Amino acid sequence: MSCEASKQIFILSGQSNMAGRGGVIKYTDTHHHQHKKWNGVVPSECQPHPSIFRLDAHLHWEQARDPLHVDIDAHKVCGVGPGMPFANVVKERVGGSLGLVPCAVGGTAITKWARGEHLYDDMVKRAKAAVENGGGEIKALLWYQGESDTLTEREADAYKGSMEKFVCDVREDLDLPLLPIIQVALASGDEKYIEKVREVQLGMKLPHVVCVDAKGLKLNDDNLHLSTEAQIQLGQLLADAYLCHFHPASS
Predict the structure, then answer these.
(1) What pLDDT digit, counting tens, does each position of 75-104 carry?
(2) Rounded Cα–Cα distance for residues 201 and 185 (Å)
(3) What CA–CA distance (Å, rounded) separates 167 from 21?
(4) Which CATH superfamily is domain 8-250 in?
């Protein structure tokens, strides 16, 4: 598929709530085995648009549509995430061509996103390919991760240092020292340690790092993943944060 030469590129990374589980439902087959599938419902806020693209698993641009992470978080069932509602708001207010680079993988702790780990290296590779394969500029990294770091006190205590190193490393490796990073404060996780991780997310003092809070957004029946409705709200919150802090003329 051909696309415009210059795109506003956004990296979507983290774990399952960034990959999207909105509309993922359980069903039982004729042998009484339980499975999951996406219900296929695409709300108006998530509709594809000719000027919104995604980088597929083979580093090719194609028109973006949910599930954005279908070939990235490939071992899980993906549904609606925040990427499409985010992109539609930004497109409406800023115009031009947008490129989304899905990188999120469910169930991944922050240690799996350290420099040298496969997920981190693949994210950097994909971000560089997004610029090289068609041109454009990386505008921001959208980051929703941390549920897997609320399971033990040790992991929660280590989160601040790990997250700060992640920010510094990704900026260095992409040669973007002030890359805007918009992270999401957790809506779910282990009750014992979720507030420790949320405190880190809401209190980060690094330059050009802002946080939107997902707490209170509606969860699926699993009490872990955001519903489709909540993913739309989150995408709009992320867009508002980007436009307010990093594209103020459009906010």
Answers:
(1) 999 999 999 999 999 999 999 999 999 999
(2) 6
(3) 25
(4) SGNH hydrolase (3.40.50.1110)
Q: How far apart are the C-alpha atoms of 214 and 110, rounded to whole Å?
A: 18
User: What does the alpha-carbon distance between residue 45 and residue 88 come to, in Å, rounded to a whole number?
Assistant: 7
The dihedral of CA 117, 24, 60, 18: what is its sign? negative
- Listed by start position, the domains of the chain span 8-250
Marked catalytic residue, from 16, 51, 97, 188: 16
Of the candidates 51, 69, 149, 225, the residue annotated as catalytic is 225
Beta bridge partners of 28: 34
118 is catalytic: no
Contacts of 167 (CB under 8 A, 6+ apart): 181, 204, 206, 209
The phi, psi pair for 125, rounded to 5°, reads: -60, -45
- Whether the full predicted model's pTM is greater than 0.85, yes or no, is yes
> At which residue do the structure tokens 């601040």 appear?
160
- Whether 225 is catalytic is yes
Helix (H) or strand (E) holding 184: strand 181-185
pLDDT at 5: 56
Active site annotation includes 222: yes
